[in-house]
Amino acid sequence: MDESTSFLSKHFDLPRIRKVTVQRPLYWLSRGWGDMRDNLAASLPYGVFFALAGFALLAFAAPRPYLFSTAVSGFLLIGPLSAAGLYEISRRHENDQDTTLAESLAGLKRRADILFHFGILLALMLVMWERVSAVVFALFYADNVPDLSNFVQSILFSGEYTTLVLAYIVVGGLIATIVFSATVIAVPMMLGRETDMFTAMATSARAVATNPLPMLVWAGLIVLLIGASFATLMVGLVILLPVLGHATWHAYRDMVN
């Protein structure tokens, strides 16, 4: 255990974190698929809703290419909270309880206050990222903003904006690492046990620090699958969001004692 995780354990009443193998994220996905398959009527409405929301987000960002990458990353940012109902379904399924959509939503009422406050925190993070993104873009891109059809060609492949791309990757990667570490299993933990938001976030960060390679693989799988959803104009999200949501519950249960 490194100094940072020792500090968290000392100042928070944190549960023990298990080490997992680098292949374990594939197991989480398989369990997530099983939970979705066994709870189709309750799980798929979440996928449909967020596929529609994601499509609306794409439609909004399409004529505003300077917001496009922020919109996509923002969609990933709110993912841990948007899947809260799916965690509840997996929690009940683990206890051999059948769950309807209404019951999964009603189950969230147990932790409504803490989920509300967590949502505010995520919203603040999203606003911060949008502002940082705008500043980086303004500092390193002096031309007129191209339309979306020319945006990728102009920024990534023209060779004129290498500094912008590198700055965006470094700054965005740092923010994404911090947010991912603090939130990846925080919401499942808040639903799975009586704990406060900061303890859940500290436990999430400690789980990432204890299992860096498996969590790097997990982050890559999330980006890959959400990217596939964007490539299909969000149609794939109907299936992939429930699978990822249920799988995240199993990631929490696998790593947190």
Describe this structure in words.
With 257 residues, the chain is mostly helical. It has one domain (18-255). The protein has 14 helices and no strands.
**What separation lies between the terminal Cα atoms?**
16 Å
As a percent range, the share of helical residues equals over 70%
Number of domains: 1
Order of helices and strands: HHHHHHHHHHHHHH
Give the biggest beta sheet.
Answer: none
List keywords for this structure.
257 residues, mainly alpha, 79% helix, 0% strand
Summarize the structure.
With 257 residues, the chain is mostly helical. It is built from 14 helices and no strands.
Topology:
Layout: H1 3-11, H2 24-38, H3 40-61, H4 65-77, H5 79-82, H6 84-94, H7 101-107, H8 112-140, H9 148-157, H10 162-183, H11 186-192, H12 197-210, H13 212-231, H14 237-255
